[in-house]
Amino acid sequence: MKWAVKVGLSGAIILSIAACDSLDPTSTKGEFHYSNPTNNTMTFKVDDKDYKVEPGATGQLSLSPGMHSMVNARGEKSQFMVFDNNTGGIINPDRQMYYMLSEVYAVKGHEQRFRPAEYNVTINGHNLKMPLLSANATIIDHTFFACKYQLGEPFPDNITTLDKNTEGNIFNKCFDKTELLTYFEKEYNQKLTPAADNGEAKDSVNTVFDYRIPEPKFKDPGTQKQAEKIVALLKQINESTDPGIHEDIKKELFQATSDLVSADVNVASKNTVEENKYYNAFVEQTGRFRGYGILPK
Q1: Quick count: other Cβ atoms within 10 Å of Cβ 191?
Q2: N or C: which end of the chain has fewer CB within 10 A?
Q3: CB 104 within 8 A of CB 17
Q4: H-state helical runs in the chain
Q5: Which SS3 state, helix, strand or coil, does residue 99 take?
Q6: How far apart are CA 100 and CA 180, in angstroms?
Q7: Mean pLDDT for the chain?
Q8: Contact status, residue 28 vs residue 39, Cβ threshold 8 Å
């Protein structure tokens, strides 16, 4: 048995934390969390059911695969599709700021093996660079905000592992803004309150859920042909009301993606730097779209 203790640089805002965590996606399927980081009672509806959330409170609801609707306190209505491949998420009717922070838990002497992937983020006008994702989407997809510890659930001080070869692990936690500011002040003695000399007290979003499907414009005919197949399949996902659509077209999508890679390999050495960048951007954007478990309608 080993103890892995949470690593942190007391008094420093750039924490010894890292960016990713292995997560069992089936454990959070259908789980949607919400919180109220404001000083006033928050109300909203999901599928015509009323929710009333007191200041500082958190909650969770379960949503089955299929179409759902949400209405915020201002009467603004939105609809979204929950697919079979979902891993849950955060319900955010008032578009508050939410964050995903990652901490390293390491056996003593092995802390340096874990390195953070850093992101630029602004909180209350403070410009930071650290492993912290921020988002304010109406529905925050757990696939890309993969938190082991949810809103209102604390990071443990340490974890125990029965694997004698384990030297540490990385765990993610979701925060609303109020909870995050409290955590920074308590754990790292950092107050990120707005200050007169700090310019406009604003927050930045560094994680955008982009649901656009790109229209391929490859110069090579072979690459263009395979890219068009991928786009056609993604459009099926976008237009479908079948929660199991991903499984239905999985083989076709895998084959089209493999064919795209093969087509690009044949011409990559002749492509310009700009063409290779375009290819990489296309693969990244289409790959991200096929990974969404929640899709606004």
Answers
A1: 11
A2: N
A3: yes
A4: 177-188, 221-239, 245-248, 250-267, 273-291
A5: strand
A6: 9
A7: 87
A8: no
- Structure tokens belonging to residue 94: 């008032």
Specify the long-range contacts of residues 181-187, CB closer than 8 Å, at least 24 apart.
181/123, 181/124, 183/101, 184/13, 187/8
Rounded CA-CA distance 292/232 in Å is: 17
Run of H or E residues at 135: strand 132-135
- Residue in 233, 236, 242, 128 with CA at minimum distance from that of residue 190: 128
pTM of the model: 0.86
What pLDDT score was predicted for residue 160?
A: 74
Q: What is the pLDDT of residues 78-112, one digit of tens each?
A: 999 999 999 999 999 999 999 999 888 877 766 66
> What pLDDT shows up at residue 199?
57
Structure tokens at 189: 């003695």
Please classify residue 121 by burial: count the beta carbons closer than 10 Å to its beta carbon, then call 0-12 exposed, 13-18 middle and 19+ buried.
buried
Question: How large is the average pLDDT for residues 100-129?
Answer: 82
Which of 25, 154, 182, 45 has the alpha carbon at shortest distance from 89?
A: 25
Measured distance CA(140)–CA(259) in Å, rounded: 32
